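[audit] Reproducing an earlier prediction to check determinism. Same input, same settings, fresh worker. If the tokens differ from the archived copy the diff job will pick it up downstream; this log only records the rerun itself.
[audit] input (171 residues):
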Amino acid sequence: MLGLLRAGHSPDEVQRAEWLRGTVPPGLLGTRLLKGLGAQLEPIMAALPAEAAAPLQHHDIAVDCGPVRVVGRVATQQQLVLQATFAKPSESRRIEAWLRLLALCAADDRDWTAMLVAHGGAALRLQGLDQPTASALLGSLGAALPHRSRTAGAPAAAVRCPCGAAARFRR
């Protein structure tokens, strides 16, 4: 439902789509459920910044950060990496938003920010770093992660980052 609302559909259209999917209980029970979910989504939608209305841009990332090569794709809206979720804010979601921002800052030296909007409208805004600092930090993080191969001739180990990027170790 959150995705449809963010795409610009009205609450009535979103409720109708849920009914048509057949995932809502019939009758009054389904009506109450949808109204309750709609009420819980309102604070999230209200907390979204103006940039949330901008079209998505996808940035392909391929950057060498010391012993780590980070590759992946990060979506932005203007200069903002926006993550909106119905779930409650958690450390893993905060880290995911931070890693997306860090990877983007390491690949593209612009004034990036990230924002996490979660259940209840709780919002966290993160300011990006300059490109050399972001690259050094990603390299330090990559060097601290465990990896399979410590010999030069063995295949590189890969670690899936929560930001959807893959970090490859070249040791």
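[audit] rerun output stored. Observation attached for the diff report: DSSP finds five helices and seven strands in the chain.
[audit] end
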